[in-house]
Amino acid sequence: MEFLVASAIGILTAGGIYLTLRLRTFPVILGVSLLTYAVNVFLFASGRLTVGAPPILRDGVSTYTDPLPQALVLTAIVISFGMTAVVVMIGLGAFLGSDDDHVDDQPQTDEDRSEDAS
Amino acid sequence: MSLFFIVALPFLGALLPGLMNSAGRAATAGVTFTVSLAAFVGLLTNLPAVLAGNVVMARVDWMPLLGLNFSLMLDGLGFFFALLILGIGLLIITYARHYLSRDDNMGQFFTYLLLFQGAMVGIVMSDNILLLLVFWELTSLSSFLLIGYWKHLPEGRQGARMALTVTGMGGLAMIGGMLMLGQIVGSYDLSVILQNRELIQADPLYVPALVLILLGAFTKSAQFPFHFWLPHAMAAPTPVSAYLHSATMVKAGIFLMARMWPVLSGTPEWFVIVTTAGLITMVLGAVIALFKHDLKALLAFSTVSHLGLITMLLGTGTAFGAMAAVFHILNHATFKAALFMSAGIIDHEAHTRDIRRLGGLRKLMPLTFVIASLAALSMAGIPLLNGFLSKEMMLEEAYHTVLFGSPLLVPVLATVGSLFSAAYCFRLIGHVFFGPVRDDYPAKPHDPNTGLWLPPALLVVLVVAIGVAPFLAEPFVKLVTASVLGDAAAVPTAYFKIWHGLVPALYMSLIAIAGGLLMLALFKPALFVWDKAPRPEAKVIFEAIVEAVAKLARAVIHASHNGAFSRYAAIALVVMVAVGYHAWSTGTVGPDTRTVQYAPPVFIAAWLMLATATAGLVILHRNRLLSLILIGIVGLMVSIGFVFFSAPDLAMTQFTVEVVTIILLLLALNFLPNTTPVESTVLRRVRDTGVAVLGGLATFGLSFHYLLRDAVDTPISEFHLANSYKGGGGTNVVNVILVDFRGFDTYGEIIVLGIAALLIYAMTETLLDGPVRARLLNRKPDQARSGNKHPMMMVVLTRVIMPVVLMVGFYIFLRGHNEPGGGFIAGLIVSIAVVMQYMASGFGWASARLRYPYHGVIGAGVLIAGLTGIGSWFFGKPFLTSDFTYVRIPPFEKFELATAALFDLGVFLAVVGAVMLSLESFSRLARLAGYHDSDEPMDIDPLRDDTKAAGLAAAEKKGV
Question: TM segments (chain A) (predicted)?
């Protein structure tokens, strides 16, 4: 099970990195979302994996899962929504303003320059 | 008065002139004067203690761990400078009141002036060198503001920039030097540093520290080769030139050298650097000053020259030199400030400062003539005026100084400097006041009103008084000298006298005065030679250097920072993995302590789906709609994973966030292209794959490593589990952590969330106001629109489900403290319920029924959470201390009331407001883009008159 969780984190990271390195805003946003999953799961897993022992106190139960990473990840999930929304808005604003959704500043090609000149 | 008040008064008082601006010029100047006067009187109350030889101290720990404390001290030297700063400040304020014209913003001017005054007093009273640095930089900044006070003049702006660049760079160097000094001594307190002469001078860091500190002092005090900024700073209004650039700020560097004199001076390095720089500056400044036609430029270069003189005296490292330096600081401040103010009077009355256009003012402005001439003669070193006394002492000291093995070098150069100094003083008097009265002055000159001539006149009274009766100043100068010298040397016994007998200094003085008169007689041919001689223009060189540095910076930045985000990301990722690998390979790795747990088939299935969806997302990401579905699957699998691993709260949060994120991305996709074109080269994709695989392997390795090992130290989670019920009154430990143990974190997080939503709202507003608006209005939808955008089935369903969902949200909220749930999750659920109404009936219909703007909801949430936290103050507890109790109201069962629930309510409201505000902002964009929204809940409504609906449909068709 540990292997599967670790590999899931790895897969999510790899996919996230690949998409983050794309040239258009939308895939980059998706990539960042994947990275967010990876990071959240990673943080969550730092409490180690526990099955069937939720962090709800019960009489007569002595093993609980680690509640601290859960609390931290919970706010991280909500904050990451806010962050995604802001990034999407920036991307959208840039696209609507320039009709261009490239992530990189396009270096001026010779063609552009001759167009400017004419 | 406490030293704190003396330093704080100008800073606090700086608020007043701006406020008094509308009350008139007299009131503005009056309040500034009062503030300065209060500080001045406060300073004088400390006079008895200083005269008794005590050092007044005041101290408050600021950042003790960094060694940065707000500690002040007042000894003779500090008192002397503070007296100059506040005393001359009072005169300058009076003068400026009459000097500034009605068009100038006087409140702003006096605010800057008081800021400067406070910073300057701070420098001379600091006992902590880090604190001194803070004040030091403040004087650079306030000087920048004052030089550039006339913002409309390009010279003012350029001069201000140049002054800030030069003094700012010097300040940076000085920070380095001071830190080294603190390292050597082990304390940043001046009083401690000054006791450690041997320790400092024996340290290998002594020379670097000395050079860096001197860089700071030389730039501030305009010593060669940094002298060039001072003349350009003369673009400032004349009161500023008189105050900052002759009497006070430029003396800060001198002050620092005097302050550090006991520990830094006396070594060959100090002697060679300081004396040489001072000598060169003194001669160079005097020669240039002679040939300047602008009165203020002449005075500026003469200031440079005199600062050089003082520096040279400090450089010799003898007690007599230090005493001469202190005496000359006093004398120079009196006669030079008087001269600057006189130059300002001439400029003010004759409307020109060009010496070539003046002359004959003796008859037109007799009062100004007397004041300026006495001050200038003092500067030239004529007996019975104070300049003579300190110049004589300087020449005496120079006569005994052997530099570079030559006993003649210093005396000859000092005489040459004095000669040119006398020459420009004579020129100032001769060419401005003597000669025939002209009839082509830009304005008819006459003596000014009292406010303008009284301040310089008072200074000239001092000039004459000290000059005639030097014994008046002697005890004070010796007191200050004693505090400069510290324990390093004894105060010289020499008396201040006008007549010393036929000593070498007298002959040197005579040569200088006679040579000065000769120079004036030969001025025309000398000027001809000067104008013909090639000489470097400092401003051009400075600008060339700045341009070269900027070019270099541009080249470096453009090469490394070319605007390609994906490149930065790739570089950052590779570096992160490399750093992680380094840590991994150099650290110690313990053995496995946990066993791998058995994975049931259902878990393997979920893993497979997650892996497949991620791979599919990467491969098919060009189809954007499809990729949204795939990322939805990933999110769902992550939620299921949370369920599996005993994290019900996380699962619920992830699940609900997933819904709103997908809606958000769909709204965005409305505008963005539906596909991503193939642009990157194969090579690039291979590179990116490589980076991605590298990053994936790294996180996999790290995760797998720690999943098989226990934490190296005991986690604090045990504490939370043990105290959740006892201290927080809840059995859901995750929720108790959120609203209680780490409530302050959560409070910060809901604020961040609120800010994010407001940011989105603000960006939408900007977009809707700008050129994008027209673009959106003219936008043609790229796909056919649905004929029935608000289908009846959906409308009915969402209406029916709304109360149910709200009830669920309420339930989740209430149970949160003891069972999975809480404010975050409830907020998301309620948001989804509201979003469904928007989706079913459109933006127009839904927002028309919106009673509370979402901004307010966010604000209310943050406010409730904050007030809950503040509430605990009333019970003498720290912020956000929670409390709970159990109550029983028949016929209900016993239930719990906790302040944490109130806090959670704040969280709930903030989440609802933030999520809704973000989504609403997106749909406002969509609404503008030609999606006609009716105010009706649904497009086809059997209860409604059909003709109206048909008309609506027709309008729609036309629109599309």
Answer: 26-51, 72-96
